[in-house]
Specification:
Length: 239
Amino acid sequence: MPFNSKFTRLELLKLSGLTAIGVAYIDLMHTLAFVAKASQNNPTINGDEALQRLIEGNKLYASGRPGHPHQTEERRIEVASGQKPIAVVLGCSDSRVPPEVIFDQGLGDLFVVRVAGNIVDSAVQGSIEYAVAELGVPLIVVLGHQRCGAVKATVEIVEKGGQLPGQIEAIADRIKPAVESVKHLPGDILNNSIKANVEMVVGQLKNSEPILAKRIKEGKLKVVGATYGLDNGIVNFLA
């Protein structure tokens, strides 16, 4: 078959050689940029800055425009040797409320502790204290959510009596004080209890000695509560 082209074979060979060099150069620059980035320490971030990053990430997620940051092979390699998350998220185990997704974060960004009803026991508190004391995390978010099953079950126990099976009762026992505190208030008791439970846990963490309370007094740690809407995907931070 005749070779039909405005380029001669020699010209094409030269062109392909230059293209290969160009691709190799781009790959090299990409690799050097990644190595330089990976070799740098993660920048220091305070609690307010971390909170703003989560707020902005949730806005992207809730609007259907998530950026899916820090989910590449390069990021996996970057954080393999160490972590410096920007926040602890104490959330419910509910499968519909994954913190990395709803805050549009990625590998190494969040230190996540999940337990039904976003309660605090010794193991949960120890995990949070580790993140604060050893990893220097500047922000803790206690994240409740709409129609929480653990809180709903506790409301039913408070209103109707009875007992939950097995160790589920241990979860309800920690939520009951929040339900009791709002059961005579106007409005929906479940919604009020979800908010009260978050506020109660925030208070427990803020007053936890010696690690958390000390960091808060030093201005090195911020603890906030929030609730997540299953219907709209929006995280509302409590005042």
